[in-house]
Structures are given as C-alpha cells and as structure tokens.
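Per-residue structure
===
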Amino acid sequence: MLSKKVEDALNAQIAYEAYASSSYLSMASWCEKEGYRGSTSFFYTQSEEEREHMLKLVRYINETGGHARVPALKEPPHVYKSLKDVFEIALQQEVDVSKSINKLVELSFDTKDFATFNFLQWYVAEQHEEEHLFTSILDLLKLAGSEGKNLLMADNEIPKLRGEEAKS
C-alpha cells in the first residue's frame, strides 16, 4: 500500500511524463514543418515513449492501492530557433525529469517503501540513457554546424542514434 506522500509524489511524476510527451509531440510538429524528417520521426517516437512512461506510473499507482490522477497540462512551446535549440530544450527537460525521479527514489527509500524504490530503478536507468542520447545528438549537431548538407546528414542520423542507444 502506498503512503499518501509517495502517492502524491508519483502523481506529480505522471504530470512530468505527460508534459514530456506533449512537449516532444510539439517538437515533432515543428521539425516536420521545418523539413527535418529524421528529427520528426525521432520526436514522434520520443513522445510515444514518454506516454508509455506515464502509463507505467498510472498502472503502478493503481495496482499498489493508490489512485493515479491525470493532470491538465500547460501548452508546450511550439516555435524554436533551430534544430539545435530543440535538442537543447529536450536535454534540459530530461535533466529535470531525472532530478524528479531521483527525488522520488530518495523519498521511497526514506519512507522504507522498497517496492516503489525497486519500481523506480527502471526509471533511473532510463533517464541515464535518455540524457546520454540527447547529449550524443547535440554533439552530432555541433559537429554538423547549423546549415547545409552537414545538417541534413546529421538529421538523417538522429533516428539511428536511438536504435544504437536501445542496444547498449
């Protein structure tokens, strides 16, 4: 059975995951409008993945005697300066989610809710992978520069990095 404090914290994490999904969908739309096909595909997939993370939390809360709540969301940005800007914002979003997950892990440990502590270990590993993935993409974009064929080639490589990330 979840304590009220842990249940509330997990519900707050649902909001983070839901916002991340919405934000990545907005990023996908911007990329599609700007003609970045690789990044469009990447962010549509990323949006779905974040939705799955949210659903995993919803199910865990409900299965553990709590009541998951689905929050209203603020509208994410829909205009970006550049492809690099999109990925910088995405990386910061992942860093913020990692901080939130780490606080949840600390809370579950401090309250001796070891089932939740164990459940959250998947999120800890996932966030490590996500931060590494976005850092790798930003490294690629830095090498490519901000225009021309190099940027097009980098955009085409971005979805492939996700595939490589899943294998490691």
Residues 4-34 form the longest helix (31 residues). The domain at 4-167 is CATH 1.20.1260.10 (Ferritin).
